[in-house]
Design goal:
CATH architecture: Beta Barrel
Number of strands: 9
Largest sheet: 6 strands, mixed
Strand content: 25-35%
Radius of gyration: 14 Å
Helix content: under 10%
Strand order of the largest sheet: 2-1-6-5-4-3
Shape: globular
Structural class: mainly beta
Length: 127
Amino acid sequence: MRLTGAGAIDATASVSASGISGTPLLTSDSRLYATTTGGQLVVADRSLAVEWSVDGLGAIAAPPAFDCDRNNPGRGGVLYLTNANGVVLAVIVDSHQLELTAPWPMDGHDPRHTANLLTPMSEFTCP
């Protein structure tokens, strides 16, 4: 499914013909967040079936970043995207935190972008 420009849900969504751009992001609920070269955010489940997507974001300039809702423990998190015009987009999602057991769950390894496999992911546990 996807959200239309008016915020309505369209359950017929699929990944656009354009390819995945950058590094996808993996969350603890086994969701994979990825952007395409055509300006689409795609969210897939563990079987890689598309759960929902959003079109029309413009060219995405960087891989997605993620943070949990630190003021409301247990609630969803925020996915951050930056398009080629320098606009930062914040998307509230159901996922609570990064997949801390994955060896490399996001671009740069972790939220600090240490690019170091030895950085313990336990530092990034959400409340």
